[in-house]
Amino acid sequence: MALSVSSSSSSALSASFTSRSISSQELKASQIGSFRPLDRPLNPSIATNSSRRRCLVKPVFAESKRRESIVPLAASTVIAPVVTEKVETEDYEKLAKELENASPLEIMDKALEKFGHDIAIAFSGAEDVVLIEYARLTGRPFRVFSLDTGRLNPETYQFFDKVEKQYDIRIEYMFPDALEVQGLVRSKGLFSFYEDGHQECCRVRKVRPLRRALKGLRAWITGQRKDQSPGTRAEIPVVQVDPSFEGLDGGVGSLIKWNPVANVNGGDIWNFLRAMNVPVNSLHSQGYVSIGCEPCTRPVLPGQHEREGRWWWEDAKAKECGLHKGNIKQDEEAGSSQSNVAGTDDIFNSENLVSLTRAGIENLAKLENRREPWVVVLYAPWCQFCQGMEASYVELGEKLKESGVKVGKFRADGEQKEYAKQELQLGSFPTILFFPKHSSQPIKYPSEKRDVDSLMAFVNALR
Fold it and tell me: Is there a contact between 31 and 8 (Cβ–Cβ < 8 Å)?
């Protein structure tokens, strides 16, 4: 793996290949001690020359006895045990509060200053290229790694190449274990995630490779933003002790996670990318916002949230692949309490909508000859996407009140969720069903467009 480092850091690296008796603290000091944050001129040639020299170093994956990590700091045999001084633990909650109103550039500079060669930017091939641009602007050496799942869009691979050439770096790619992928595909097929959820495939193709990568680091930098997923990312701080993964030293608290753009909204990210003439993935011009693997990503429609393009067949509140699973844990606790509180405010309240009980929808589903057709929304009142379509659905009820079509709602979270998944085709909230007059099988609304005109077109085509 080729790294983007400064000339000062490359000398330390070459020295480390003759002996591993140098402590990690001494090495870090030699790498970053001469830099000062934000008050130094940029010198692209430094990174260029050192990057070329670094290519001559034997890659870590060629060493059979080395653990698979993205930090090839030393290749020689350890001569003597290294004694390191005890370092006082930093209060990262306090640091997060201090940096709460700092700019992304300040946060990036602080991260690179504190961790030097032991930190890397996680790059997905989407708009988080902004992180690489901020790192370049600090003038400090930086490293970038990415997870190649083997199922990315061709446009994403082309984008990786553009980024490497633009910044004169080598992205450090991590790949899934070939035998694990082979076992998964042979036993369950290429598209099992459409049937039993994306978590297993993501675990093999993304989470485990990430775990190997992070075991070679003391910190990593992500492009998480609070507005990306209000359900799972609304509370992320700009810096935190990673709640899910371990770093180089192992154990809880051994890895620090930096989120420099946590408080930046998506619109400002794109304004910055355009202003700096930064290369972007061509998929963005085709309606893709959040970009992942090709089978699990699709464009979003105007007005839809960007995460609706990811794993669209699943519950909107679980749209994380596992790389940031600490977010899901926090959210599941909050979501569980929300869905079980008796005083939770209900939605879709209108005299033109029939509120169905469990017994009511069971009877409706069993009837083969109904007096009139029904359109029913399966919803959860805490779901942001259900809340987003409330006005349209209430208007639909108003338009259909004299048409002979009944409009209903069924709250399908909590204890009713398993039944709704098994018997009513619930995949994610909201799910809209049409029950024809002369058929027991409901028809699921297939579109993500939830405006009243689209819903009316669906109903008119079937009634």
Answer: yes
Domain assignment present for residue 67? The answer is no
For residue 101, what are its two tokens?
């109103």
Largest Cα separation within the chain, whole Å, is 87
Q: Which of 201, 202, 296, 386 is catalytic?
A: 386
On whether residue 2 sits in a domain, the answer given is no
Task: Give a yes or no: residue 12 inside a domain.
Answer: no
Query: Residue 305 corresponds to which amino acid?
Result: H
304, two tokens? 């839809």
pLDDT along the chain (463 residues), means of 10: 41 40 40 42 44 36 39 41 55 94 96 97 91 97 96 95 96 95 92 83 92 95 82 80 91 92 91 94 88 88 69 60 49 39 71 90 84 93 87 93 93 92 91 88 90 93 88
Are 214 and 291 within one domain?
yes
Point out which residues pair with 375 in neighbouring strands: 407, 434
* Count of structural domains, the chain: 2
SS3 165: helix
Residue 386 is among the residues annotated as catalytic for this protein: yes
Same domain, 108 and 257: yes
Task: Say which residue the tokens 């495939």 belong to.
Answer: 201
Quick check: is 201 catalytic?
no
Q: How many Cβ atoms sit within 10 Å of the Cβ of residue 159? A: 23
Residue 359: domain span: 354-461
H/E stretch holding 354 reads: strand 354-355
Is-above-0.90 flag for pTM?
A: no
- Asked if 320 and 361 sit in the same domain, the reply is no
